[in-house]
User: What shape does this take?
Amino acid sequence: MKQLLAILFFLSYATLQAQSLEEINKQLDSNIKQIDYWYYEASANSKYDSLEAVNIRFEKHLLKVLNNNPKTLEHNFDTIIHTVSSPDKKLRTYSWDTNMGGTMRDFQTVFQYQTKNGVKAEKLTGKDNEPEDVIYWCNAIHSFKNKQKTTYIAVIYARLSSIYSYTSVLFFTIENDSLTEIPSLIETDENGDTSGIEYNFLSTIDNPNVPDELIDFDPKKIILRFTKTDDNGNVTNSFNSYKFNGSYFKKIN
Assistant: This one.
């Protein structure tokens, strides 16, 4: 009888947890739709203060939910928030369009990650430990082992104008109960430029010759590949490749 009650309790608990996550999903979906609503109100009636306020409320609510509900780290959200996770499921990003930008779109991204003492969620911080106002969304997270530590590679995108976009990578580790952004591990070129790609995103539309991913990663060979562009910023089907040599990614072609 006790065993039966234990099973029933476990099933009941699991059901409550699933309902809780489902309610979280519905609430986030409702909140993000409020951003869309106030975007149209701002456009029609110049209510930009309301649009900014609803974005601030949404961000605070999202961070609170993610910090207080560890199971959200692996939950399959079907809201219109864009989520991507690392292969080991220990790092996840949540990105959304604030609708506060013009032709340069204004995206926000928060990071959620697993530590030894639980799950945390936060925005990246810059100088004076203040949250950064990023304008990118995260499209993929890769990882590899580096000196017994896991290094995460976040592929980010930004919309710069009605024609041009930008994509690059950020590197992270999770240690001492914190997510730490580390300096770029990619060798710079002779001009000191990094490997980010500014490109004409119109060249990627309905173009079968364009690769599916502008930046991809081979975890077995630990090689990062960045799509090349022509003189007009159009995406091509050739790549610059960088292989990790134990210290940084060195260009190999």
Observations:
- Residues 4-18 have pLDDT under 50 and may be disordered.
- Helices lie at 2-45, 48-68.
- The first strand starts at residue 82 and ends at 85.
